[in-house]
UniProtKB/TrEMBL annotation:
Keywords associated with the record: Iron, Membrane, Metal-binding, Mitochondrion, Mitochondrion inner membrane, Monooxygenase, Oxidoreductase, Ubiquinone, Ubiquinone biosynthesis
Organism, as annotated: Emericella nidulans (strain FGSC A4 / ATCC 38163 / CBS 112.46 / NRRL 194 / M139) (Aspergillus nidulans)
Record lineage: Eukaryota, Fungi, Dikarya, Ascomycota, Pezizomycotina
GO annotation, biological process: ubiquinone biosynthetic process
Pathway membership: Cofactor biosynthesis; ubiquinone biosynthesis
Protein name: 5-demethoxyubiquinone hydroxylase, mitochondrial
Subunit structure: Component of a multi-subunit COQ enzyme complex, composed of at least COQ3, COQ4, COQ5, COQ6, COQ7 and COQ9.
Length: 240
């Protein structure tokens, strides 16, 4: 029932993925890459804005790169899993569609963000595409419980990862406040977006457990290997 309630809440973006990815870079200012002079000029009427260091901007660049890669992988996992899961368990069709639709929305969001901030996508893109499709297909073949265990494992790592990013930006916000400054609007929006997506990922984790992810055979090796793979992919995509 939680899934249906979430379905009703869900707003589905309509712009095509590819266009979002290619088009917006020319339309927006890279606010978090703005210089102190530009910030002072554009925001002279409000509280002074917190100016990010080079390391902080690099942190955001790598966060956006990882998040976009992760959301791409999530859409591909569900694309490969759904037909197999739904064939033997038709009642799961709305849930699988709901989770896929949310992942597609997350991917659109990060496609827009990396274009807007001119962040280089991961060079591992084709590898992650193949790996995610294989992971979705193979857990789908193993059955409903294994497919749900895959979601449980992925969302455990992704939820933790979003939490780390959120904690980092909150630390910057505390630093800004201690100096009588505030985060620029771009960064506040980004923080809100990360929190919303983190909550949706944790909702997927709940759905997976409610749908017997813990019954997967063999549960421990399966979940552990997927979690290890996620952590490795995150580490690599931060840099490459
Ligand atoms: Fe997602
Ligand atoms: Fe998810």
């Amino acid at each position: 029932m939680k899934a249906f309630a979430a379905l009703q809440r869900y707003h589905r973006p309509t712009a095509p993925l590819l266009l979002d990815f290619l088009a917006p870079s020319a339309l927006h200012i890279r606010q978090y890459h703005a210089t102190p002079a530009r910030l002072a000029e554009s925001q002279s009427n409000s509280k002074p804005k917190y100016v990010l260091s080079k390391e902080q901007r690099e942190f955001l660049d790598s966060a956006l790169r990882v998040n976009q890669a992760g959301e791409l992988a999530a859409t591909l996992i569900y694309t490969a899993q759904t037909p197999q899961v739904v064939r033997s368990h038709p009642h799961l069709r709305p849930l699988m569609k709901h989770m896929y639709d949310q992942e597609a929305g997350h991917l659109r969001t990060f496609n827009q963000m990396i274009a807007k901030h001119r962040v280089r996508p991961t060079a591992m893109y084709p590898i992650w595409e193949a790996a995610a499709t294989f992971l979705g297909w193979s857990t789908g073949v193993m059955g409903r419980e294994a497919a749900m265990a895959c979601t449980e494992a992925v969302e455990t790592e992704i939820g933790t990862h979003y939490n780390e990013q959120i904690r980092e930006i909150l630390a910057w916000e505390a630093d800004a406040h201690s100096r009588g400054e505030e985060l620029d609007d771009e960064l506040k929006d980004m923080l809100a977006t990360f929190r919303r997506i983190r909550d949706e990922e944790l909702e997927h984790l709940d759905h997976a457990v409610e749908n017997d992810s813990k019954e997967a055979q063999p549960y421990d090796p399966l979940v552990n290997v997927i979690r290890l793979g996620c952590r490795a992919a995150i580490k690599i995509s931060e840099r490459v």
